[in-house]
Amino acid sequence: MKPPEPPQQLVHPDELLLPYIEDSLNPEQRLDVDRHLSSCERCSSEIRELGRITSALRENKQAFCPDSSEVHQFAETGHDPENRISRHLKTCPNCLALAEALGTEQLPHSMPADLWERVQERLGIVETPRVSESVETAPSFAERLQQWFRIPTFAAGAVAAAILLVVILYPRDFTVPGVGLSSVTWEGVSKPKALLPRAAFIITFKDFTEPLPQKSVDEIYRALKPDMELSERFMVISPAELRTAAKSGDILLDPLRIGETVESLNKKLNVSRVAVLTLEASDGKFSVKVELMDAATGTSLGQRRESAIPDNQLPEKIREMVSSMMYAN
């Protein structure tokens, strides 16, 4: 009598579940997944969970943006085997603008290895050790999700920063505001001769349907470079310290909870003054509010507002407003 064959191990189509939800599978693949889901409670449960996650993430449209390197490759070579990039560009003006800009520029094909090592060190990126090809390990749910929601590539020029400001965005189209760090180099800033109170600047962009162009953001940073008088009064907290504290969860950076953000900066980083800048755009001009906070007590030390500021006057106007508030307190 022929012995019964051992039961075949069920193979779960993990890599196809998210494309299944996004309706990006070909008909044959979709049929295979449908058949599998009809008899697999594990994958059916994961599909339901993915559905809830993607529904939430759809409110944050940039979470589904392709990596900037993919947009670059598409703009340069037209490489788009599944038409994923071209479909995305039809609905995402930000990525379309990036593709058009990349299409007119001659960018280097790769970043030098030594520069990438310095970028990794500055940003605190830890390389994931490669697993031997002979050892097959099933990626976790979070790892598979990471493969789809990638963080756009950092521009090399943004890494060489001496001091950074925290930029917190309030995009109107986003349910959950994004938090990021942006940088410019402030060369020649006077070093304090004595122990000075620490200060931090928080810039919030409210009701922006599209992010402020990086060039405009950088101009604001350059205008806010501490002069000698400010450097003799305060030590502006470094970007590396802010980034490390934020990534470790030591400090809170939440535009919807500014009071708690200021409190965490005081308790964890010993910040005594926080200047909170709120920018709003309307008809090509800007309104700016600067509020100086006593980080130890959470109380407002005063605020100043300006409206109808033209784009070309924004950096200097912000510098003037921040300086007047810092010098007065």
From TrEMBL:
It holds the Pfam family zf-HC2. The chain crosses the membrane at residues 151-170. InterPro entries: Anti_sigma_zinc_sf (IPR041916), Znf_put (IPR027383). Residues 15-43 form the Putative zinc-finger domain. Keywords: Membrane, Transmembrane, Transmembrane helix. This is Zf-HC2 domain-containing protein. It comes from Desulfomonile tiedjei.
